[in-house]
Each structure stands twice: as structure tokens, then as C-alpha cells.
Here is the input.
Amino acid sequence: MMFTLETHVLLSLIIPLLGAIGIALTSSVPNIRETVTLVTSVLLCLNVFSLLPGIMNGAEPAVLLAEIVPDIGLALKVEPLGMTFAAVASSLWIINSIYSIGYMRGNNEPRQTGFYICFAIAIAATMGVAFSGNLLTLFVFYEVLTLSTYPLVTHKKNADALKGGRIYLGILIGTSIGLFLPAIIWTWTLAGTVNFVKGGILEGHASAGVTGVLLFLFMYGIGKAALMPIHRWLPAAMVAPTPVSALLHAVAVVKAGVFAVLKVVIYIFGIDFLTTTGAAEWLTWVAAYTLIAASVVALTKDNLKARLAYSTISQLAYVVLGASMATSMAVAGGALQIVMHAFGKITLFFCAGAIYTAVHKTEISDMRGLGRQMPVTFIAFLIGSLSIIGLPPLGGSWSKFYLMLGAAEADEIYLMIVLLVSSLLNIAYLLPIVARGFFYPPLGQSDEPVPVGYEKSDFSWRNIQEAPLFCVLPPVLTALACVVLFFLADPIVRLIEPILTP
Amino acid sequence: MLLLIAGALAVLSVRNLFVATMLLGIVSFTMALIFISLDAVDVAFTEAAVGAGISTVLYIGTLALVGSQEREKSKFAPGPLAVCLAVGAVLYYATYEMPRYGQPDNPVHTHVAPRYIEDSPTEIGVPNMVTSVLASYRGYDTFGETTVIFTAGIGVLLILRQRRRRKKEVTTEDPPLRDGKGGSISGLGSAHDLVPHVISKLLVPFIFVFALYVQFHGDYGPGGGFQAGVIFAAGIILYALVFGLDFARAVVNEKAILFLISAGVLLYGGVGVVSMLLGGNFLDYNVLSSDPVAGQHLGILLVELGVGITVTAAMLAIFYAFVGRPELLIETSTNAEQPGKERN
Amino acid sequence: MSFGFFNYWIFIILLMIGLYTVMSRSNLVKKMIGLSLFQISVFLFYISMGKIDGGTAPIVVETGADGMAPVYSNPLPHVLILTAIVVGIATTALGLSLVVRIRETFGTIDEDEILEMEDKD
Amino acid sequence: MTALSSQFPIIVAIVPLLAAPICALFRGTTLPWAITTIISGITFYVSIQLMIAVIQGGPISYELGGWAPPWGIEYVVDLLSGFMLILISAISTGVLLFSRESITREVPDHQLGLFFAAYLLALTGMLGICITGDAFNVFVFLEIMSLSSYALIAMGANEDRRALTAAFQYLIIGTVGASFYLIGVGLIYMMTGTLNIADIAARFPEIEGARPILAAAGFIVIGLAIKLALFPFHVWLPNSYTYAPSIITAFFAGTATKVGVYLLIRFIFTVFGVNYSFGGLELTDILLPLAVLGFLSMSVVAIYQTNIKRLLAYSSVAQLGYIILGIALASESGLMATIVHIFNHAIVKSGLFLSVGCMFYVAGSVYLKDLHGIGRRMPVTTFGFVLGGLGLIGVPLTPGFISKWYLVVASIEHGGVIGYGLVALLMVSSLLAVIYIWRVVEVAYFRDIPEGAEKKEAPLSMLVPTWLFIAASFYFGIETTFNVGIAKATAAFLMGGS
Here is the structure.
């Protein structure tokens, strides 16, 4: 460690912002600009990980940025959950940066400078969300995240992008200002503070009824958690270039949502308080419904990114479910899910983007036989899928395992059934993609880049036409990470353990 | 009193704007008479000069430019009527607990005012209490008032000196100048009438003398800078009406007027600043001279002069702007490339 | 005096007439006239409250023949109204100059007609 | 120096006033502008000095003409008026810095001297209103401000003839409003015999039950409501703001209506006192529905505008609804929200109008249809506009967020169905703000640049002041000790003062 923990916390915010400035300054020379992005992301990742040992030892560095409202400042405070989230986001940013370069260049996207700047700002906001020390700070960075990703979502600047952008912004800003903010202020008037305190701050200040209403405001106010029926923004956001969908809409933005949910449940309401009041009962069922319904919708989608988006909605519901069951096992499962799903889903998006870059296909039905042409991509896709489904030896299995344990702990037999059904549905909507890729013959149509006459041939090196290296390498890396994480689950659980035991 | 109401109703119903203006003048004049009966001689003086005098001239000047017939349409507006009745009802409701009219023990007469009545002759040394309150106790209000006039002068100049961009309509709009009944006043003078010429020649000097009297005698009788300014301006306006605007301009040109408007305000403010420099507060005349009363005298004199200058100049500026407007238009239309150089 | 609140009532009626003229007439000059009327009525209100029965104008005079000190009416409202009159004439002047310009640019001084023209702009 | 500083209260008002006639005499384009800007800067400096003095030593009283109140006219600087002085002079200075390029394009050269004289007079009027402690003096300065503003708005006729009718409409309505105020003051004078605000307040409890006082309160509140464009008395505002020259709109949007709000606060809290205003008068029942209707309906209307200035003008009326809401809630936090929002909205709106001024300078129009793709033609300006728009919406880190925070706190404290209902309505209104700001954003970024439109930024002399406002808005949205601190102290002072 070069600096004090506090400085490192601050640096996590400053590095990406400096990176954004650097990108702006070097906009005329793409190579240098991309180098700046990469260097920034590596620096950020190193910086975040340099915090890790301290946090593991139980330190809680805090920084006060400014006082917006008397007694409530913009305050940063690192705790295990945030640490986990920040670590995931920052490490994935490196991989994603590599991928972005490949993708953006491969597709000759315009306005790349703006893209990288917004990206860096969004990452800074994500760090802010992860390290926020109170609700207000969380809210502030949450909004910054929304606004900085808006230009990314509408990057294509066509009618679709406009429409998607409207839905995206409308729902996210609408719910956050309309529900989240009042909930924060209400909490403040009730408890006199909005700091994240272990064990919650509302206990003793709010009746069961008020708690129920507040929980409702929070859960639907945090639109990024994509609980049904306010999930529409996520599919809408898929008009964005794939790197955006990959990092932001599989990791940073949506995870900021569920992360906020966890934070609120753990530090504002308190797990015990929620259990005793039973206010979270309804949330469990909403989450369960979202979980199943989104999976079913995913089945019907032919567009690969749309299917992945619904899959994300469904997977996010796991986290909310974990939070709502309000048992320590379930919450641990939720936290693990944030990590595991991040790696799994980003792999899938990377693959989707790689396919698009290589052959410009977006519909699943057009991807028959592509596995023979792009074997690496499809194998990575397979691994990611399996992780999300929750099969060992992949990381995803742990989160499902803990969630099951949590459901068992809470004696919720029906929930266990829900989880089981959902896993089956996961299989149903993810694996056919891979199966089509490998086992179906490619389409023999003229727009198919595979020349006629080769379609019946088996795998051969000559058929391989992968996307550019920068597009293929990242999914491979993240797929490997899914495997590695299976063995790293223990340290992660140990990291977040302190927050579960009061 | 009832005459007022009758007059007001007539104003409302008459369709010819020229008549309405005249009626408004009559209402103002009646009001002035009532003010005299209410002991407010200064106000009456002003109201007569302004309400019945200057503003009537302004209205007529406007009508000359815009035509004097209201569109034939008798409409009854229930909405506004309801609003008016509501406002009236509130006031009527309020009158019931108002202090009785004219009673010496009303709050207005027992608080604050006695000081003016009892002490002003000794503190200020000016018999006319209105003047002493106006120029000294509430001198700052009067400064504000002067500024208001200044503002109006500036505003009218700003608005009416603007040249229009659409030049094609100019020629079609000339006729109204002579349509209205006040057409003859539009700056060209009644060149062929000997009687008015002689009479006004005789009158104008007297008006000026009277104005000066009012100006400097304001300490003792009704009057003061404001009234004097209005009268002074009236004299010049009369001159302009009879001999034509160009003659009047020869006497007092517009550049001088602008200068005078500013000078009046500056004189007033200057007195204040000087009093500040001499260690008093703003507009504290006591410090102007070793003897406070003499200081007050001096201060009031200067201040009234400032008011007089500004008012005269502003009134003239407004008058010129109105009456000179048609010329400006013609000028613009013929000489669009060099918009009125000589007038700046 | 016998007429108690009479002055105030006159004030109210004048005010109502003025206000009604402002609001109901579409001719801009008529509106200005109404506005003047409205302002004049306020003057009456102020001056009325300054009056004292049997009072005289607030200018120092020699003690009366009966040896009584003269009763002066309250000079303060007079001062205020002097200012208000000035404000009134200033407003009138500005308003009328606007009317003149409106007439020049729109060719009419009827509000309804102007509104129609504006909609086309 | 001490001698001079004891004269500061009068200097604030008198310096621009005396500069006006001087300015009127000058010709040319640069000199009047330079004088005006320097003068405005001086008032800003003096205002700050005054505020410092007030914070250190309590309210300052200055006797004009050396006559003690209530006989003479008194100038009073307390926290609230000091706050307003700083706000007004700061905005005026910022706008003036901007005006150099903009105004020479919109106003003919030979009128610039008069134009800036009128500008100075408007400034004088506003400062005078805020600093005076005399109810009638308020009227005088109100008229100075109003008359000069009519003339200034009419100057927009060079670009669009509708400026004339807008100015005329404003003149009629404004004069009626001012006369209402005058009647109200007359009634109060009748009952108390004094015009000094502090003196009235002191004598108020004796007569507060009387009918004339009730009527007086009614007239004053309505008169001021007209002046501050409270819904439904707002009809004059959109037209005036739309057609006035850019810098005038920016200046007035930040200050003119705020002065009205200041007076309303003065009368409600200082003169009538909280108990009478909200106990005897039930002002909450009157103002609250108006405020709510105002911010909801006006936000909706704003959405349908095709002219950016008009859109922002309606948004101003809506934002005034927030300000009045804070007053209507009659609590310390409500009042605090009001004061904070006066400040925040002034900065944000001025910044927005300035950026629109830049667009007008380059594109020559403020209609949305003519501004397609402006975000790519003028990236810097438009980005400033977007940031300002975020401030209007109330996104965190912008000052709008702070205001909204306190309004919601005040509403929740108010409690009951009304309180929570208000929270919901406030949020709805914020969302409406998102919609109307985003209409502009979409036009700016998602439409194709029209053929032949050049890509060019406004001159630096315009961009810098615009960004000064935007940057200031963010500064005060993050580092809130100044605005919130003063607002808190002021609110406590006003509520406790009754």
C-alpha cells in the first residue's frame, strides 16, 4: 500500500475521472486514447485491490467529500459488501476496455471519444455507489450513473436509440426521483440519519406499516434492480453497443441496483428488524415472480441481447430474493450472486458482441452452426451459461447454493421450488443457443459468410473466422474467471461475513 | 363627488377615445377640486397640472398617432365584472371597521404625523409641511420619485426612438396623423392663426415666471419642484403647439433635454452624496451648513431644483418623443441608410 | 361630517369602474384610461384619510383670530400621493408610447385583433 | 474606511442609481457597458461586505436624511435582505459580463447608453426594494424597477414585434398589481399611522383583528402575487420573458420575480407575523393549492412549448410554485426551502437563459425547430444547457436537488394526507421537468443538423459567463454551507422574529 486507506478510497473515484480527462485530451490520437483507457482501468483495479487486505482485516476507511445538507455529507465509507462490488466492477473494467477497443474498432463506431469518456465517468459513479457511506451519497452516484450511461445507451443516435433512451431515462430517473428520494428523505425525518449503520437505523423509529411502505418505496425506487414491473428499461438499454451492455447492463448499473437493495436491507432496515416486522414478505413473492416471469419471457426472445437482458432481470431477482428473505445465508447468497452473475453474464455479452462483430448477427435463429465457425466464442458462452445456471465447478453454483440454504433456513419450501424451476428455465433459454451453434448445420443462405459447399463439412481450422482478438480474448478470460471463482468462494464469503453477523 | 362617478361611467361607455380622454381630464380636474376641499392643496395643484394637463396632452398626442375611434363592439364581460365586484366588496367590508373619516384621533393622525406638524417648522424651518416632509423627512422617496420620472423619460425614449424594421408600412400609416380630432397638434403648428400666436407669445413668459415662482416659493405655499417642472414644460409645450415643434426644438434641443434629465437626478443625488461626504447620512441636509435649519433650507432648495429640472426635461422628452414620432418614421423611410444622424 | 365613509365609497366605486375598464375593454388606449382612473381612485383614498375635520392645509399660518392653534391635516398622505401621481404619469407615458409603437407595428390598437395577428406570427 | 463602510447600505442602492443618468449620456457601445458592469461589480462587493457585517453584528439600520424612523425612511439590512442583495448584484454582474456581444446584436448601437441606463435603474429598483425598511419606499422602488423593465422588455421589439404587446400587457398587469399593493399599504397606514415596516410590525398585534387589516393583507398578497407571477397571475411572465432581449430575460428570470417573493416573505413573516398570517389569515389554504396547481400545470404547459425561452419561462412559473409552497407550509424547514430555492433557481435559470442567449446569437432563433442538432453545432453551450436543465430537474449534485430535499422534508414534517400528497406531487412535477428538458436534449442531439448550418460556438465572452453560472450552480449544489447556512439562519430569524 502506497497511501492510507482513505486516500485509496478517494483515488478510486479520482482515477477514472482523471482518465476521462485524459481521454478527452488525447481524443485526436486513438491509439493513445485507448492506452489511456487501459492504463486507467489497470490503475483503478490495482488501487481497489490494494484496499482489500485492509478491509479483510476489518478496517472501515471513511472520507467526507462535502456537506450537501447539514449533517448529511457526501461521505464515502468502505465496507465488505461495497469492497466486493468495487473489486468486481474494477477488474471487469480492464477486460471490458480491451473488449471495447476491439468492438468499437471492429464495427467502426462513431464518436468513440465520447464513448470512452462516459464510460470512465460511469465507472467513477459505480465506485461511488460501491463506497457510499450513506443513502444520500448512494443516491447521488446512482443518479450520476444513470445520466452518464444515457449517452452510452443512445450512442447510435438513431430512432431506436432515442426511443430506448427515453424508456431508460424515464424509468430510472422517474423511479429514483419519484420513489427513492422521498424514501431517503422520509428515512431521514424518521431516524435523523441516513448513514449506513450495521444492524439498521430504522429499528425503533418506524412502525411495521411505515416500514412496509418505506420498503416498497426503496425497492421500486431503486429501478436499477429491475424488479417487475419496472424492468422495461433494461431490454430498452440493449440498443447500446455491446460493451456497454456487457459491463454496464450486466455488471455496473444493474449490480448497483441490487447492491443498493442489499445495502438498504442490511444497513438501513437491518436484517433482524425486517424479519421481526415481516414487512419484506411481499417482496419475496415479487422477486420470485420476477424470477420466473423474466425467465419465461427470455425463452420467447429471439434477439440474443434481449434474451440476455431478460435473463439478467431474472438473475437480479435472485439478489432481491436473497435480501427479502432476510436470513444471513440468503443475504450471503445474494452478495455472492452479485459477483458470480457478473462474471457469467459479462461472458455471455462479450460473446454476443463478438458474434455481432464477426458476422453481424443478432437473432438467435440466425446463429445456427456458428459454433463451428467461432468455437472459442461458443465455448466461452457455454461456460458462462453453465455458471449462470449454477452448475459446479463454476462460480454460479455457490450463489444458488447459499440461496437454497437461505430458503431452507427460512422454511420456505415454495421458494426452494421456485429456485429449482428457475434453474431449469435457465437451462431452457441458455443452452439451446450453444446447442444450435454446435449441433445444427449453418444456414445455407447467401448472406451466410460460410461459403456454400462447406456447410456439411465438420470442424476444420479453415472454417474458423473468429472476431478480432480483442473481442475474443475477454470472454475467454471471464469464462476462466468463472471457473476460478468456484474455488475462490470461500474468501469472498469470509470477506462479507462480518456484515451478516450482528 | 357624484360628478366623479358620472364622469367615470361616461369614460367607460363613451366609444370615441378623444371624448373619453377629455372626460378623464374632467374627472382629474374634479378630483383636484376635491383634493382642495380635503386640504391637500399641493396634491390638488399637481393633479390639476398632471392629471388634467400633461396626461391629457399625452393621450391626445397618442390618439393623433393611433386614431381615436374604438371598435364598434359593445361587450359585456361578466368575468372582469365579477372580479371588480369582489374587489369592491372586500373594500366595502373593510370600511366598516375603518376609523371614522376625519376624526382627529385616528391612528394616522396620532402616530408619526404629529411630529411633522409640530416639529417641522423648527427642525426644517419651512412653513409648508408637505414640502418639508417631501424633501427632507421622506426626501429619499422623492429622490425615488425623481428617478421614476427619469426612468419614464429613458423608457419612452428607448421605446419611441426605436426605428422600425418593416419599412413598407410606413407610408400607409401616415393618414391617421390627420384623421383624429387632435390632428392639428402633431407638431406642425397652426401656422396661420394670428390670434393664438400673439396670445401665446404673451402667455409663455408669464407661464415661465409663474413656474419659477412655484419652484422657489414651494417652501411657503403650495408648489415645489415637481409642479414647477410640469408648468415649465407646459409652457414649452404650448410654444411648440403654436409655433411648431421645430421652433421649440430650437429653444431646447433634445440633446440638451437628455442632459437635463440626467442633471436633475445627479443634482439631487449629488446633494445626498455631498451630505455623505460631510459626515452625515445620505440626504442629511443638516450638515450642509453650520446652522442645521439653514442647511435644511439649502438642501431643500437644491433638491427641489433638481426635481424641477428633471421633471421639465422628462416631460419635454416624452412630449417630443410622441410628437416627433411621425417625423422619425418619415425620416426612416426616406433615409433608411443613415437613421437620423442629426437626432443623436 | 355627515358623510362618514362617503369618500371611501366613492373611492371604491371609482376603483371598480377603473378596474373594469382595464379588464373588459380591448382597446389599448381605453385600457390605459381605465388604469389612470384606477390610480386616481387610489389617490382619493389616501388623501381622504389625511383629512381632519375643521383642519386646514398643512402650511403654517399665523394663529387664528380666535387664538386657537390651527388644526392641520396630515401632510404625510399628501407627500405619498404626490409621489404616486408622478408614478402614475410615468406609467401613462410609458404605456402610451407602447401603444403608439404597437399601432405602428400591428396597425391596430385593438387587443383582440392583435392577438389574432400574433397567432399567425 | 469605517466612515465609508457605515454608508454601505445607501451606497448599494445609490451607486447604480447615480450611474444611470451618467450612463444615459454616453454614446458608443463599449463605454456604457463598461460603466454598468463596473457599477454592478461594486454593488456586488458592497453587498458582500454588508452581509459580512450583518453576520458579525446583526441587522444594520441606516437612517436616510438623518431622520430616525418612523419619521424618516430607514434602510435595514438583515440576513434576508443581505442575502437578496448578494444574489441580485451577483446575477446582474454575471449577466452583464455576458452581455457585451449579445446586446450589440439585439439592440441598436445608438440606444445602448439608454438601454444600460434603464438596466441600471432596474438594478437600483431591485436592490432598493430589498434593502428598504419602509413600506411606501418599497412602492417607489417597485415602480422604478417595473417601469424600467417595461422599457427593457419592449427592446425585444427589434427581434420580434410581440415584445411590444408583451411589455404592454406586463405594464397593465404590473401597474394593477402595484396599485393593489399601494391600497394595501394605505389600509395599513390608516390603521397604524406608520409606514415603517418595523414600526408596523410592532403595532400590528393591537389591530390585527380589524377588517381593514384583513383587506390590507389580501390586497398586498394579491398585489405581490401578481408581481411575482404566482399562478394564476402569471400570464404576463411567459410573454415578457420570451420576447425580451436575451440578457434581460436572464437577468429578470433570476431576480425580478424573486424580489416579489422577498416582499411576500417580508410581509407575511415580518409584518403580519406567522401567527396572524397562518392563524388568522389561513394563508396556507390559499397559497398551497395555488402553488401546487402552479407547478403542476405550468410544468405540463412547458412541455408543449416550441420556443425554448417560452419553455423556460413556464418552467420559471412552475418553480415559483415550489418557492411559494415553501412559504405556504409555514414551517422553518419550508421557509428554508423557499430561501434556498430562490437562490438556486436564480442561478440555474439565469445560466439556462444565458446559454439560450448563446444559441440565439449563433443560430438566430430560439424555436426548437430551428435548433436541430444544436448539441453538435455548439457542444459547449448545449452541454451547459443540459447541466443547467439537470439542475431544474433536481438531480443530485445540482442545487435543485438541495431545494427539493428541503421541500420534501418540509412536506413530510407538515404530515398528514396533505404532506405526503405533496411529496408525491413534487415528484410528479420533477418528472415533468425531466420531460421538458429532455425534449430540448433530444432536439439538440438526436436531430440532424440542418443543411448549411455552420458549426460554431458563441464567442468566449459569452461562454465564460454562462459557464460561470453553471459552475456556480454545481458549486452551490455540492458545497452548500453558504446558501443553506444562510437560509437556515434566515428562516430561524424570520420564524423566531414573530
